[in-house]
Amino acid sequence: MTDAQRAAQKAGSEPGPEAAGPPGTADTAAQGMTIVARSQGQLVRRRFFRHKGAMVGLVLFILVVGLAVTSIGAGPIPGWWDKTPTATATAVDGGRPTLSVVPEFLGGGGVHLGEHPFGQDNIGRDYFALTMRGAQVSLVIALLVGLIATFVGTVIGAAAGYFRGWTESTLMRSSDVLIAVPTLLIAGLIGTMIAGRGIVLFGIFLGLVTWMQTARLVRGEVLSLREKEFVEAARSVGTSSRRIIFKHILPNTIGIIIVSVTLAIASAVLLETGLSFVGLGVQPPDTSLGRLISDYQTALGTRPWLFYWPGVFIILIALSVNFIGDGLRDAFDPRQNRVRD
Amino acid sequence: MLVFIVRRLFVSIWVFFTATIVIFFLATKVKDPLADARQLPDNTRESAMAVIIERMHLDEPFIVRYFLWLGDAIQGDLGVNRQGLSVNSMLDAAVSATLQLVIGATVISIVIGITIGVISALRQYSALDQTVTFVAFVCFSLPSFWIATLLKEFMAIDFNDWLADPVISVPFIAGISLVTALTAGGLVVGDRRSRLTVFGTTLAGMVVLLAALSATGWFNDPGLGPIVVALTALGGAIGFTVLVSGLEWAPPLKAALISAGLGIVAYFALGPVLKDPNLLTLLLLALVTAGVGYGVGWYVGGDLYRRNAIPAAIFTGLFTGAVIFLDRMLQSFASYSDSVGGRPISTIGASTPNYDGTFWQSGLDSFGHLALPSLALVLISLATYSRYTRASMLEVMNQDYVRTARAKGLSERAVVTRHVLRNGMIPITTLVSYDIGTVLGGAVITEKVFGWRAMGTMLLEGIEQGDPMPIMAFFLVSGGAIIVFNMIADIAYAVLDPRIRLS
């Protein structure tokens, strides 16, 4: 058999996500066990909540978001932490962190937060409050970018895949144009242009230049779905294109859409922090995790905690979102989970 | 096929052209280039502003400025920046350093990433696979600038300090040996006993090796020597034969061994040539090696085994060449290290200014400067490649034709290399073209951390001053690279997967 035949066969035998049933259903029936009928949604939820990595990621993500939001509060609502990111004070003990996690009977300083758990910077600002502010900003931007990029990408990908013809070529060529530009370049240009107009605008514009991957994925999926019998059936009874797209096609692509939201959020965290690090992203007086690292990178030798904490939070956010995304992918598309023997 | 390539080429040029308009538009709007001239005292302000306006054609509308730039750029003239310096000469100085970094990091991450991905797919759900998966997740959650700063601060400085007195401490020996032995044990197929045997032997071997290297001061003046080179070449011959055809048949093994033998002879025979060669000589030698390997494989393989013997001989020959290359590099290490004051891993710049040495010494010089920035980029791309390879391999391994291949009695090696690997690698070609854009962006950040004056600096200064010319020069190179890689990936995809051409 030639490679070509093999590849063609591969295309023919690929089961769509909806065709994948729960593993081992036939075996349980043969053993006389009862079979519980489960809907597609229930199956996905079950697989997701059984995914250890995803659960760890979810808990971690909720913890980080909860900590960032409740500690210093948001807007006019105060948080439980008594210091603010802007108030300066005298640096106590060179600004060393007072956080201690080693209990006394192990020879440590006991478990306590202390006055400044993450230390203080050179003008005495509480670094825990600063890091939390940075985390809030980075999270807001990342969520905005993830949602907007996915929304735009889905609409463009679905329109291109469904209508074909000149709609498809226009949309896909414009996506090709954006792909040809390194993300850092276009995001940096836009970031500098709207510098100082607030993080929400920054997040929205960043989302508007990072939708291409999602558009390509969705288009590929729509291209195969539009040839399916149920779409033909809908068309034959006179359903409008809009209704076919939103009611019949998009719900079937929900898996890849949800997965690409998480992946877009994770890469947006890294993109925003990277941009802010080179000075093209969040501008003072706002701060973000990347901005903090950039501000204090020279402190690594003398006050390393100013460098470590924001980095740890970037990794925690990106890692937990990536794990959630991996769990979702496994839940929606269990094709590569187990090798049949 | 030709029609497909021509059409693809036409589309690429058109896309690139459109992208230059978009970027030029944004670059002219990004910041006010006259901002600092406006701050000057009254008597000089007017003239300073007039000079900049004249130089950057600020009095012309956007569309005129764009066509002025385009007209010059097509003739290879990239204009002058805001200070009046030629952008061409800025680019000449910047481009080679950045491309070295980007290409080096990409190639390394592709090779290692795909290898790791294939192994972890073949050992799905083993401890090794779980560890690799976890590490990969951590790696692509790492901010590149953070890890680059840490590498610079600790790897470079500590490694250089350690080289002053290269004794490996006992816990370090234990740690490295344990990790290597665990990996080796994880790779073995079989029962618990054979795993433990491999684990034990590797552990003992590594401990003895590291202790001996440390005690004899090998790191002060490293090198492999003829015996190690010969043994590695023979090991490579056996390894490549196993991969290509298995050891059941004699001709491929014989071809590989002859190829390794010729390599060892060349090690001694080429001594004077390899003293201070240039890049061209080495490339020629590599070509000759491949040619000789082909001949050996063709002749020894005979009609029946030619298909296996030729690749086995070529790969072995090239591998032996690489080992000899490594040996030469290591031998020059002591003299290079002395010439830069005993601190070979650099943290600033892309090369030692005005460095003059043999081919091997300047090679080490670039290596010392590239090592850490590349490592920072590789760590992140590596994770992507290994994850995608693993996913793609697993998907192919679930296909019916793989079961058929097993059912008709093919060996596991043949199933994996011929049926799974070939088809599993097809989606990876697209990933390479996507990744190149990310790596270029990462390079800008990494260059900033390591203080390189290269493409990244050009871009950042251009944006800082609202100066379109350097920004466009950056885009011509980076966007051009992305377009070219995308095109190659598309064509490769069409060659590998004929279904694509139909649409």
TrEMBL record, chain A:
Pfam families: BPD_transp_1, OppC_N
Keyword set, alphabetical order: Cell membrane, Membrane, Transmembrane, Transmembrane helix, Transport
Residue spans of biased composition, Low complexity class: 11-28
Domain ABC transmembrane type-1: 135-325
Protein's membrane topology: Multi-pass membrane protein
GO biological process, alphabetically ordered: transmembrane transport
Transmembrane segments: 55-77, 137-163, 175-194, 249-271, 306-325
Coiled coil regions in record: none
The keyword Acetylation is annotated on this UniProt entry: no
Positions of region (Disordered): 1-28
Compartment(s) of residence: Cell membrane
SUPFAM superfamilies linked: MetI-like
Gene Ontology, cellular component aspect: plasma membrane
Family, per entry: Belongs to the binding-protein-dependent transport system permease family.
Protein name per Swiss-Prot or TrEMBL: Peptide/nickel transport system permease protein
Record lineage: Bacteria, Bacillati, Actinomycetota, Actinomycetes, Kitasatosporales
TrEMBL record, chain B:
InterPro entries: MetI-like, MetI-like_sf
GO terms, biological process: transmembrane transport
Positions of transmembrane segments: 9-27, 97-119, 131-148, 168-189, 196-218, 224-244, 256-274, 280-301, 308-326, 367-385, 431-451, 471-496
Entry keyword set: Cell membrane, Membrane, Transmembrane, Transmembrane helix, Transport
Highest taxon of source: Bacteria
Record's GO cellular component terms: plasma membrane
Entry protein name: Peptide/nickel transport system permease protein
